[in-house]
Amino acid sequence: MxxxxxxxxxxxxxxxxxxxxxxxxxxxKSLSNMLAISVGNFGSLIRAQLxxxxxxxxGISAGRACKLACAVEYFHLASLIFDDxxxxxxxxxxxxxxxxxxxxxxxxSILGALALINRAYAILWSLFEDxxxxxxxxxxxxxxxxxxxxxxxxxxxxxxxxRNTDVSLRDVDEVAxxxxxxxxxxxxxxxxxxxxxxxxxxxxxxRFSYTLGxxxxxxxxxxxxxxxxxxxxxxxxDACLDSPNAVLSAGQPAVAARFDRLxxxxxxxxxxxxxxxxxxxxxxxxxxxxxxxxERQFDPANLPSLAKTA
Length: 310
Known about the structure:
The structure is a single chain. The longest helix is centred in the last third of the chain and has 28 residues, at 199-226. The chain folds into 2 domains: 1-130, Farnesyl Diphosphate Synthase; 134-310, Farnesyl Diphosphate Synthase, CATH 1.10.600. Residues 302-310 have low confidence and may be disordered. Helix 14 (252-276) runs antiparallel to helix 15. By secondary structure, it is mostly helical. The protein has a two-stranded antiparallel ribbon with strand order 1-2. Helix content is 72%, strand content 1%.
């Protein structure tokens, strides 16, 4: 859906994601195969593209930009592998291919996800060590916040805890802040710290990341209800599992209205960022592509009977 890079940049990014995992030759064969397939089966790479674009526009070398992009993509991949496990979503398909646990089993999938997280941390520390001490500490703290109990882990825990309960749109948004927005926040704020952005820019990017994550989750919720494995590339599970889903909680018209409000907020934040630094103007391209996706995904007349009483 989203292309922020040129074909040449995107090709370089994909090569980096495939090779930067550095799977040792002595790695157990099943684990090695699982990791090789996982890092070579690309999604939209929106987080990786954001990282690369942010750094390259601020004059950071392509090599360092690729490193950050790889790290955030490995975190994202690991979260998907965990999310698909039988103990969580029990999904069968991801990115148009069988989930890792279907092919390699749960144990190997868990170990593979841990290997991805470990590699992501190693890449990040290599980037942080070259920064001034204050910025390096800020990056380490941010990483803990976004990946740990205040971010991604917390979001998944809330998602599991709220299943089979009456969930409001606000509850769904709270889950999205952890499951989806946290990784966008990590991507944008690490990029800003590495690039030496001002505190005012970092503050606005933090607000933008929460808004962006909420919009992405709303689109994903609509796709999960309206989509099929052949169209979305993954197993729709929210209705079956009674998981937190904005469409199930409030209906598509309310979700569309919520998306439009978030888009207005995001556009205002980007306008403010542009006044401080024109390099952030590329975020308007991202919002434009999200608006196109909104027109494609939302259909107020579709499946209104699935909405619960809010």
